[in-house]
Each structure stands twice: as C-alpha cells, then as structure tokens.
Write a structure and sequence with these properties.
- This protein is α/β, with parallel strands linked by helices.
- 30% of the residues lie in helices and 21% in strands.
- It is built from 16 helices and 18 strands.
- It has helices at 91-101, 119-132, 156-161, 177-189, 201-204, 213-218, 225-245, 259-270, 281-285, 289-292, 311-314, 335-347, 362-365, 382-391, 397-404, 406-412, and strands at residues 8-9, 16-17, 21-30, 35-44, 47-53, 67-71, 73-78, 103-108, 137-140, 194-197, 209-210, 222-223, 251-254, 275-279, 352-353, 429-439, 458-468, 471-475.
- The strands form 4 sheets. Strands 1, 2, 3, 4, 5, 6, 16, 17 and 18 form a 9-stranded mixed beta sheet that branches. It has a 4-stranded parallel beta sheet with strand order 10-13-14-15. It has a 3-stranded parallel beta sheet with strand order 7-8-9, sandwiched between helices.
- The radius of gyration is 21 Å and the shape is globular.
- The protein binds (4S)-2,6-dioxohexahydropyrimidine-4-carboxylic acid.
- Residues 79, 111, 170-171, 197, 328-329, 358, 374-375 line the site of (4S)-2,6-dioxohexahydropyrimidine-4-carboxylic acid.
Length: 476
C-alpha cells in the first residue's frame, strides 16, 4: 500500500474472524491517553496483545499524514431504514457502510416505519444487526413520543428495558414543550439522554434550503436560522427548569448547524447545564452555496476575515444548481455558520461529530428540489470531510479523532464501551491511509443511499481496515 513508509499487515484477510496475529503500524491517535505518534499495534486472535510507541529512530519513517490508526468511530446519529424502507437502506447495508467509513458503533435513529416507539421494533432492529453478521455494534434510540406524533409519551421505561441508549423524535422536534419537559424528566430518571432535533416547525414550514442570499437568488423558500435558535433556546430553558427536580436529566442537541444556536449551547454549558451537542460533517465542510452549484469547502468560501465570498462573483459554481443531494434538514448553512461549527468542534462546544446518515432511494431524491426527501448519505464520507478540515488547518487531527470516538461515547455514557486502544481488549480500531484519495462513486459506496453531494469528488483518506469487537468489519 502507499502511504509514507508505513505498513498495514492485514494480509488480504476477508471480513470476519481476525485469526492469527496481525501487526498494524502507523501514526496512532489515542484520545484516551491523549497521545499520538508513531507506533505499532499487535493483534492476536482479535485481541490487542501489544501497543508500542515507536520513538525515533524506530518510527522515523512514520508520518502524521501517512497511515492513521485510531479507535473505531462511534456515530451518534444513523438512519437505517429497516423496518419499513429497505429499498433505501437495510440494517446490513447500513452496517457495511459504517464499517467502510471507519465506524464500529452506530446509534440507530427510531424514525423507521413503524417507528421504534415499541420494544418489539427495537428487538427487530437488533435481530437484523445480529443476522447481518457484521461485527459493527448497533445500539438503538427509542422514540420520545408514541408514533413520533408529539402528543403522548412513548413507553420510555419499557424501551429502556429493551436496551435503548436514549430517546429522540428525530426527523422532527418533540412537538409540545410540555411533552418535552416530561420526557426530559422521565428519561433523566432512567439515566438516559433526550436527543433533540432542534427546529421550530412554525418557522420552517415549506422551507427548501437555508434562508439567505443563495435561497433568494435561486428562488427557494428559506429555513431561517431563527428556526433552530428558537428551538435550542426552548430546549435549554426546559432543561434548566427540569434539572432542579431531576439532576440526572440530560439533553443532547443533534445536528446543530448555526453560529447563533452554538452560542446558546456554549453559554448553557458555561452555566453548568447537563447539555451536549453534535455537529454533522456536511454542516462544517459544505455550505448553502452547494445548492447553487459550488463544490468548494466551506473554508474556501470565506475571506480572510471569515466572511462569505460571493459565489457568483468568484466563479465558484462548477456543478449544476438545485442538486437534490444537497437537500437536508437542517439545511446546508452559510459558510460563516459552517466555520462556526468547526470552531465549536475545536473548542469543545460541540462534543461530537455525528453523521446524520440519511440514505434515500432515487425515487425519493431525484425529483424537483422542493419535493426531494431531506438527507445526505454520510457514513462513508464523514472521515473525508473531517480530514479535509484537518488538511486545511481548521482542526487538529487529535480533535477530529476525539470527536469521532470518545466525544460521542461520553454522550452515551456507560452504554457503549469507551473507544480506546488497550492491551488485553478486543481490537476495535480503524486504519486509514491518509496519503491516498478515493473517488466517491456509486460503486465505491456500501450504503444503498447514493444521495451525497460529494458524489464524483475525490476525498483524501482511504479506510484500509476496520476492526470491530475483535473481528474484521471492513478491509481493502
Ligand atoms: O435530513 C434529514 N433526514 N434530517 C432529518 O432530520 C431526518 C433525516 C431522515 O430521516 O431522512
């Protein structure tokens, strides 16, 4: 393999048991010990037998931008479409996509058909994961409200007994503030987080893309920043109220996408509220310009003072406008908002990166912009977006790895193993060749969802090996 003098000795092994001994050698980033540098990991029969940091001269040929070795990634926000829409994704295809993206744990969102507002649906999804044979760990969220209708609580206690890791009505916010309050209390008493999709539907009805200059020029109806800010402010106010009665209440805001909402989160965290949040790769690396046909990274779309450049003046438009693959909820935001997402990740306001992997069929996606289903297929391109930000100097490699591993694991608490590279533990890690690029082509994707605006684009960072729970989940 290429990649700056490092080697991955996986010997053409297929997905499945990791028998015999293997050695992986490269630039190890271990967010638990907060150490990074050249090293070698010995794996025997799926268990980590040795971790040697190679100080020079032994590791002198290993570069930070060569082969990266990190703990397996954890995705807090994955839409698998089973049950109900297996044409878009099955649990098996979703787990294969996860492994290709370097993820060894995914949290399945409950907006399936029927939704996971019933322990039987959770059991069915878990059974599909077991039947897939994938070693990638699937953990599930349960719904907050029955049928996600926002009117009555789902049976949160029964769902907790069925093993869910939190509750969410994602795809939509918890409609009623009163129900939200009760859910925070009840979920808190169960020791589980409420995961909120922060959107004020009264402000976003009919919206097609981020409200701003690009929307105006394209003639698309706007989803205003205030739609997120109002919902985040509501959620934080309710949390502040509830923690007085239930100190175990915990709120996680998912796919926060605007500078203004992140400012509220930053302030709430500074006041000590039990609040966490994540940002999505597409919200920190892409921007609303992409709807007009730009394909430049968000950091290329701002000037040295951080203000959005004019995409029309710069000749940045290289693709056709109105590509439905760019339609997502929350929408791709302004370049300034994307930079704010990156800054929030860098300073810890955002605890994690979460993909919001939302695969859709061609039938649901390749239609008039405003009729296209919302969502981007994201498990396989998340790492590429983050490494692009690292290469651009917008994020450290250590922080990118942290936001994909221990960051999301901490949000979930004891329900998922802490990612790390520990001698004696089953290997759970990803090996990435950062020196090589791959093209995001339909054939290259394991997800059934081809709905990504990154299609046909080259991304640096090829996943060579994903080992989950001591077994090979993906190898190339
Ligand atoms: O773009 C989105 N797609 N946003 C959501 O909140 C839901 C998701 C989906 O399920 O397709």
């Amino acid at each position: 393999m290429s990649g700056a003098g490092a080697e991955v000795a996986v010997g053409g092994a297929a997905v499945g048991e990791l028998v015999g001994s293997r050695t992986v050698r490269g630039w190890i980033v271990d967010p638990v010990s907060e150490r990074e540098g050249p090293g070698e990991i010995r794996i025997g029969d799926g268990v980590i037998r040795g971790l040697d940091w190679l100080d020079s001269p032994g590791g002198a040929d290993i570069r930070a931008d060569g082969v990266l070795i990190a703990p397996g990634f954890v995705d807090l926000h994955t839409h698998l479409r089973e049950p109900g829409n297996e044409d878009a994704e099955t649990v098996a295809s979703g787990l294969a996509a996860a492994a290709h993206g370097g993820f060894t744990t995914v949290c399945a969102m409950p907006n399936t058909t029927p939704p996971a507002d019933d322990p039987a649906v959770v059991g069915r999804v878990q059974a599909a994961a077991d039947a897939s044979g994938s070693p990638v760990r699937l953990v599930a969220y349960g719904c907050v409200s029955a049928a996600r209708a926002g009117e009555a609580l789902a049976p949160l206690g029964e769902l907790a007994d069925a093993g869910v890791v939190g509750f969410s009505d994602d795809g939509a916010p918890v409609r009623s503030a009163a129900l939200f309050r009760n859910a925070l209390l009840y979920a808190g008493s169960l020791g589980l987080p409420l995961v909120e999709h922060a959107e004020d539907p009264a402000l976003t009805a009919g919206a097609e893309m981020h409200d701003g200059y690009v929307a105006t020029v394209l003639g698309l109806r706007g989803w205003p920043v205030a739609g997120e800010v109002a919902a985040v402010a509501r959620a934080v106010a309710l949390l502040e109220d509830v923690v007085r009665d239930e100190p175990r209440a915990r709120l996680h805001l998912t796919h926060v996408s605007t500078a203004a909402a992140l400012a509220i989160v930053r302030d709430a965290k500074a006041r000590g509220l039990p609040l966490t949040c994540d940002v999505a790769p597409h919200h920190l690396a892409l921007s609303d310009e992409w709807v007009a046909g730009s394909r430049r990274w968000a950091w290329e779309a701002v000037d040295e003072r951080g203000r959005a450049r004019d995409p029309w003046a710069d000749g940045a438009l290289t693709a056709s406008p109105y590509d439905p693959a760019t339609r997502v909820n929350p929408p791709l935001r302004s370049p300034e908002d994307a930079i704010a997402c990156l800054a929030a990740l860098a300073d810890g306001t955002a605890d994690a990166v979460a993909t919001d992997h939302a695969p859709h069929t061609v039938v649901d996606k390749d239609v008039e912009y405003g009729l296209a289903a919302n969502g981007i297929s994201g498990l396989e391109t998340a790492l590429g977006c983050l490494l692009a930000a690292v290469d651009a100097g917008r994020l450290t490699l250590a922080r990118a790895v942290e936001a994909l591993t221990v960051g999301p694991a901490r949000v979930l608490g004891a329900r998922v193993p802490v990612p790390g590279i520990r001698v004696g533990d089953p290997a759970d890690l990803v090996v990435v060749d950062r020196g090589t690029a791959w093209r995001v082509e339909p054939d290259a994707l394991r997800s059934k969802g081809m709905n990504t605006p990154l299609l046909r684009r080259e991304l640096r960072g090829v996943v060579r090996l994903t080992v989950a729970a001591g077994r090979i989940a993906y190898t190339a």
